[in-house]
Amino acid sequence: MSKRKLGASLLTMFALVLVFSISAMAAATGVTINKATLDDQGVVKVIWNADATATDYTVTVKDVTNNVDKTTDATIDTANRTVSLPTSNSTKYAFTITTVGGTNDTGVTVFNVFTPANNKAMVLQDVDNAMSNANQTGSGVTTNDGTTNGDVIKSLGMTKNDGTTGTHRTHGEYQNNTNSCASCHQTHTGASKSLLFKDGVYNTCTACHDGTLGFYNVFEHSNAGTFGGTAEGNMSIHLADGSVQAKAAPGGNLSANSGAWINEFNCASCHSPHGSYSDRLLHYNPNGMGLAVKTEGGIGIKNGKVYDWPVPAANALETSILVRGTATNFGLVAADIDGADPATTKVIYAYDLNSGGTAYVKSTKPWLYGYKHASPNKNYYTRFWVTTANTEVKAPDTTLATVGDVQHYTGVVDNHDQDWNANLKIVWSKGFIYAKNGDTILDNLTKGDIGRAYTVDLDLQEIAKFGDANGVPIYQSNVNALYASTAGGKGVQMSTYCASCHTDYLAKSGSETGTFEKAYRHTTTSDSYTCVRCHYAHGTDVTVMMDAHGETAQQLVDNGTFATIEDANDYMLDQNPSSALKRYTNMSVCWGCHTDSKAEQLKNTGSFGDDNDPHGLGDQPAMPGKIKQGAVDNGSMFNPDGTQPVDPSIVTP
Question: Are residues 305 and 263 in the same domain?
Answer without folding.
Answer: no
